[in-house]
Amino acid sequence: MNWQRMKTIQKLHRGLYAIGLGPLIGKIILLLTTTGRKSGLKRVTPLQYEKIDGKYYLGSARGLKADWVRNIQANPNVEIRVKSLSFQGQAEVVTDQSRFADFIETRLERHPFMLGLIMQKVHALPKRPTREQLEKLAEKEAFVIIEPH
Question: PANTHER family per the record (predicted)?
């Protein structure tokens, strides 16, 4: 997906939350607010998420290069807006290949069609990649776990 299209989609998601449709799109999209590592300004990023055992898991297709991930590395205190809830949380960046594979396997179970397409179109993998393929993918990617306060 090209950068301009991604920016347009993110703007749409922020707008839907702003007009009160968070409960509708919040089933798969949350708004993550980080503090800019250089500017110190609040940065809001719409992201797909999974809620697992009361924690919020966010995948980063750009791995450690994503601005929101780099902001978390500099300051792990974040704000989340999901559905009609807003709260603070503590974020942890995870690069462990085994934990990454566990996370993607959970996502594949919960969203086989959507994640299958992502595996195929974005990562050039089969719709149901093997554990070994997922661990290899983890060499370039990361995910974040947020524990609400």
Answer: DEAZAFLAVIN-DEPENDENT NITROREDUCTASE (PTHR39428:SF3), F420H(2)-DEPENDENT QUINONE REDUCTASE RV1261C (PTHR39428)
The parent domain of residue 139 ranges over 3-148
Q: Which residue has the higher pLDDT, 100 or 2?
A: 100
The count of structural domains within the chain is 1
CATH at residue 33: 2.30.110.10
How many whole angstroms separate alpha carbon 3 and alpha carbon 9? 10
Paired with 46 in beta bridges are: 31
The pLDDT tens digits for 49-107 are 999 999 999 999 889 999 999 999 999 999 999 999 999 999 999 999 999 999 999 99
Count Cβ atoms below 10 Å from residue 19 Cβ, excluding itself: 7
Q: How many CB atoms sit inside 10 A of residue 98's CB? A: 11
- Give φ, ψ of 76 to 5 degrees: -75, 0
Measured distance CA(11)–CA(7) in Å, rounded: 6
